[in-house]
Structures are given as structure tokens and as C-alpha cells.
Amino acid sequence: MKIAVLGSGNGGCAVAAECALQGHDVRIFDFEQFSTNIQAIKKANGIECSGIISGFGAITYAGHDIEKAVSGAELIYVVCPSYATVAFAHEYKKAMKKGQEVIICPGTNGGALIFKKEIGLDFSSLEIIVSETSTLPYACRIETPCQIRIFHKLNKGVFFATLPASKTEEAFQFFKEIYPGSETSKNVLQTLLQNGNNVIHPAVSLLNVARIESPEDFFFYEEGVTPAVGRLMEAVDKERMAIANAYDLEILSEPVTGYIQGYMLEKNYDTGYSKAPGFAGINAQTQIDNRYFTEDVGYGLVLLEDMAKVVGVETPIMTSIIKIVSVLLETDYHKNSFRTLDKFGLDGITKDEMLAAVN
To answer: Starting at the edge strand that comes first in sequence, how are the strands of the sheet with 2-6 ordered?
Structure first.
């Protein structure tokens, strides 16, 4: 199969390398400001993969020309943070061809919804099938340009859905070949709500903000998640699960998700994260202007809060975190929200109308 990967960061390189190692014709694209990895991959003609997956994945094209990257591709992976999804959508729109399938991996904060809107298609359109995952299927890190180390590949706890949901089973067939432990979700609202970053990162960062701004390094999970911090995470998680329940969707709590993904040994908030082998040795960020706030609050919690209003669910903890982080970063994330329902064209919509739009 001809596959294009948009994004050359940690996740993009992992996806591209494994697809190539499984014998697919893989091309990788990124914007010119991210030329370091692209040029290294181009020079090496591929990506060297080490860790639990090892080998050299041959890449047939690495560059900044979207037409060359996606021309003839049957499947396109978009692997990027929330704040880059729109930019990739606008670039892909220049070269998209009817019949292609796109997977936003991970779909964090409505990736499939915003991508399909920004390429100019109705959610129900079958011209381009857009799917998303609830999380990135790897724990990985670029060691040097064109060399990726994969520490962990998720065998469970990766959820997949398509927009519209009626095409999920069909679109899932190829994805599960590479990620056999993944599961389908009811719709893209379920994959959106299953994303746990919005539960973990803002709460832990907020209660460790003084340590983040101090010169000493510390481990984000081992030292940053005490029982009291865990209680704040749990409060956010309960609000998230209440939102899902109001949309007639069932999602897993964040500790249960971390356990089945293989990161954690305990399914609790108090000590599950600080004792998790999958989170050991991860340094905290060194400044508060970091994606744990800018993405997981500015794109994440504001969206969950907006979704909650549609179904009458109160979110006092999420709202408080948004307000406090807005003060810390001197940015009003309520007035300057990056990912709310109006960005999808779904403002003023009812619950039934929203479910109809994604199903």
C-alpha cells in the first residue's frame, strides 16, 4: 500500500518507520520550518528504528512538496499535536484526491472533525474518509534525525473511529493489521473523550508550577504526582466521564486506560502514576508555556467544557483550571479558545444533532 505520513516528529517517524518495515511504500512530509528530520531522512533514504521495533524503514520520499507526498497514496496519516492539524489540513487540501483515507493519529481534541471541516467537506461526505485514534500507539523519541527509538508499542487501549461512524469498520481493517490490539469506538466523540492528556497534564502541571519555574529538574510523574495531585486528576476525570455518559458514550477512566496500555501497574490516581514503569524517568517541562497547558487546556479542556454545556453537565473543576492557567500564561483561554464547537461549525447544536452529525 502507498502511505503518506504528514508530520516528522516523534510520532510521525515511528508510524512511518513501522509502516515501511512492514513492506509499505511510505513517503513523509513536513513543513520547511521542520527541515532537520526531513533532510536527514532524505539523505539516509529512510528511518532507523531501535527499541522494541528495530530495523531500517526505507522511505521513498521525504520532503516539503505535498503533491509528491500524497500523490497516489491510498492512506494518509496525520501525526501532529492539536495546534498543527489545521495547517496540515490546509496543505493536504491542495493535493487531495477522491477516495483517499486519512487517519489523524492521535486525534486529540477533535482532530477528525476539524480536519474534515478544513478540507472543505461535510462530515457525512465519503469523498475523503477521515478517521482518528484516541492516542498515539507508541512511546517513542527521536534520538538523532532519522533515528527513532520506540520504547513501547500499545497492544491495547488504542481506540479508532471514523467520520462518519458508518465507515468505521471498513476503515479499521488496515489499521488493525499494524495495530492488532486496537479497538473501534462508537464515533469520533468517543475517541475525543477517551484522550487522557487533558486529565493528566494540566492538573499535574498546575500543582507543580513552582517546581517547573525553579531551576531544579524533577520527574513529572514519579515526583509530580502525589496523592493530593491525584485527587485533582480524579476530579477532572469524573467530569470527563460525566460528559461522555451524557452523550450516551462509555469511556475508560484514565488509570484504567494507563493500565491496559501497559504503562501502569496500578489502576488508581494516588500512586498509579508515580509508580508506573511506563512513566519512569520522564522529566517535567522547564517552563509553564508548554503544550501541557497550551494544548491540553487551550485545545482540550476548553473543548470538553464546551461539549459539557450542550448536555447540561457542570464542570467546575475544568473551568477553574482553565481560569487559573489563563492567569498564569496571561492568555484568556475562554476568549481566545483554539478548539471549541464553533471551530467545527457545531455551535448552537443540540445533543441529538451532534450525534447525528458524527454518526
So the answer is: 61-63, 25-29, 2-6, 75-78, 101-104, 129-133, 159-163, 183-184
pLDDT at 129 (0 to 100): 97
Would you state the torsion angle of the CA atoms of residues 131, 137, 141, 145, taken in this order, to the nearest 10 degrees?
-50
Domain 196-354 belongs to what architecture? Orthogonal Bundle (1.10)
Residues 77, 57: Cα–Cα separation, whole Å: 16
Closest Cα partner for 243 from 302, 297, 320?
Answer: 302
**Measured on CA atoms in the order 342, 345, 350, 356, is the torsion positive or negative?**
negative
Map out the domains of the chain as residue ranges: 2-193, 196-354
Residue located via cell numbers 455518559: 245
- Tens of pLDDT along 305-351? 999 999 999 999 999 999 999 999 999 999 988 899 999 999 999 99
DSSP letter string over 202-251? HHHHHHTHHHHHSSS--BTTTTT--HHHHHHHHHHHHHHHHHHHHTT---
Show which residues are catalytic: 201, 296
Question: For the domain 2-193, what is the CATH code?
Answer: 3.40.50.720
User: What is the identity of the amino acid at 151?
Assistant: F
pLDDT of residue 289: 98
109 near 122, Cβ under 8 Å?
A: no
Burial of 171 (0-12, 13-18, 19+ CB in 10 A): buried
Mean pLDDT of 86-114: 98
pLDDT average, residue stretch 218-237: 98
Residue 87: pLDDT band (50, 70, 90) is: very high
Which three cell numbers mark 80? 501532529
User: What does the angle CA 47 – CA 145 – CA 104 come to, to the nearest 5 degrees?
Assistant: 65
Amino acid letter for position 285? Q
